[in-house]
Amino acid sequence: MCEKVISDFDMTLTRFAHNGKRCPTSYSNSPLKFSLQLKELLNKYYPIEINASLSVEEKLPLMVEWWTKAHELLLQQEIRKDLLAVVVKESEAMLRDGYKLFFDHLQEHSIPLLILSAGIGDILEEVIRQAGVFHPNIKVLSNFMDFDESVEERMQFHLDSYDIVLVKDETMEVPNAVLRYLTGIQLTDTTM
């Protein structure tokens, strides 16, 4: 039996709130001239995302709108890679209680941890790195920033590269094939 752990990042491995205050996500944790605008987007679209009374068809165009607006704001910032560590260090992002035991246990037993996140991979990796638990068994599949292109080139790239959306595919064959290809980890339908 091949053991593995597959997890989301924002509000799964990280805390939702601490001392009554909401913790930042990998998007709201970026080097922000536009943090207020990103927070306004979160306040507008997150309630829609978690609204169980809305259908996927109703939510999908609004989620794409949210994603597009958030990425446009991030691209306008001309983020520098050398500032990411400072931003994360100064932020209130934090992993959940017991994270060290969890990450270290997986590493000690050679259990792969695959983090699938719609967040910003550069930020989430830095959160894990600064917590001292970015072990070799961790693979991150996420949205990573490209620091070598102009803002206009990056914006066009992101607008042209929406995530794959699987509608009514309950077999898990396509996602398992993609994950096998990207990670070399063998997955079965029962692992998802």
From TrEMBL:
Principal location listed in the UniProt entry: cytoplasm
GO-annotated cellular components: cytoplasm
Highest taxon above the source species: Eukaryota
Catalysed reaction equations from the record: N(7)-methyl-GMP + H2O = N(7)-methylguanosine + phosphate; CMP + H2O = cytidine + phosphate; a ribonucleoside 5'-phosphate + H2O = a ribonucleoside + phosphate
Keyword terms: Cytoplasm, Hydrolase, Magnesium, Metal-binding, Nucleotide metabolism, Nucleotide-binding
Protein location: Cytoplasm
Gene Ontology process terms (BP): nucleotide metabolic process
Pfam families in UniProt: UMPH-1
InterPro entries: HAD-like_sf (IPR036412), HAD_sf (IPR023214), Pyrimidine_nucleotidase_eu (IPR006434)
Keyword Methyltransferase included in the entry's annotation: no
Coiled coil, from the record: none
UniProt GO MF annotations: 5'-nucleotidase activity; magnesium ion binding; nucleotide binding
Functional note: Specifically hydrolyzes 7-methylguanosine monophosphate (m(7)GMP) to 7-methylguanosine and inorganic phosphate. The specific activity for m(7)GMP may protect cells against undesired salvage of m(7)GMP and its incorporation into nucleic acids. Also has weak activity for CMP. UMP and purine nucleotides are poor substrates.
Subunit and interaction comment: Monomer.
Family: Belongs to the pyrimidine 5'-nucleotidase family.
Record protein name field: Uncharacterized protein
Source organism per UniProt: Mola mola
